Each structure stands twice: as C-alpha cells, then as structure tokens.
C-alpha cells in the first residue's frame, strides 16, 4: 500500500540539516505541515493547519511528528476523524506540562491528551533529551498504547543531534509500517 509520509515539525520548524527536512527530500511521498508562526505556536492555529493538510492528502497517512508536534498530533487525534491515519512515528515528545523541561511559549499545548490513539504508533525518545524525561515519554507511550523506543544518548533528536538521514529512525519507521500491515490482516 502507498502511504503519504506527513512531516509535522515542532517549535521553530525542522529546517535544513534536521532529519525531518532530510526525510522530506528523501521520501518521494513526503509532505510537510506548514505553520504560520513557528516560534510563538498557538494550539488552535496549529491544529487548523494540521487538519487542513491532512484533508488535502488522498492516500493513507503515516505521521512523522517531532517534539511539540507530538502533543499537537495527540490533540488532533482526540478531536478529529483519524480514519486517514495509518500510523504515527512520535519522536522526542516535548513535555509541555513541565516548566522545568519546556519554554513558556509552548505551554498552551498542555495538558497532553492521554487517550489511546486509534492507529498504530511508536514513541521514540533519547535518555538525555532536555525536553522530557525517559519516564515521562514512556508514560505517554503507555497511555497512547504506542510502542516505545529509547535510542540512547542523542539529545532532543533534532538539528543539534546531527542525525543526517537518521537511518535508525528509518528502521523504526519500517517497524511501524510492518505493524500497520499486520493490523490490516
């Protein structure tokens, strides 16, 4: 089955050199959600743009969300028809409920919805991510009924992590695609 890979960046966008931007150019079936204000995000505005992008895609969608966008996807999934979503890779969630971990400009994304997601998903974290603890990322994963991966000490899995095409992430994406295929049987 042909899927669209929907790249959903977080705060500040995932620009040149970020693995999400590299994936956008690497996968021929990849699209990206564009937000009006990458640096002062407002949940309702970001939800509208995510929803508009999802509605514009005709094939089943695999979401690839990073950081703040993980909370965005959790909110969107509670409020919208998720039938077009085949699965989601939820990378380096930012703990928007923790003033110790995240900047004030993203606290309007709290609280993070904890309801089970209606599609296969995988949460990926790093054990030294400054924006969330491993325990909190695993807690979110359990509530969402997502598979959980800790990829070791790689920071926030962002531009500063210097991941290139992030082959390890692509392998985990393949695991997700396999999980999706098994669920269809």
UniProtKB/TrEMBL annotation:
<protein>
    <recommendedName>
        <fullName>Alpha/beta hydrolase</fullName>
    </recommendedName>
</protein>
<dbReference type="Pfam" id="PF06821">
    <property type="entry name" value="Ser_hydrolase"/>
</dbReference>
<dbReference type="GO" id="GO:0016787">
    <property type="term" value="F:hydrolase activity"/>
</dbReference>
<dbReference type="InterPro" id="IPR010662">
    <property type="entry name" value="RBBP9/YdeN"/>
</dbReference>
<dbReference type="InterPro" id="IPR029058">
    <property type="entry name" value="AB_hydrolase_fold"/>
</dbReference>
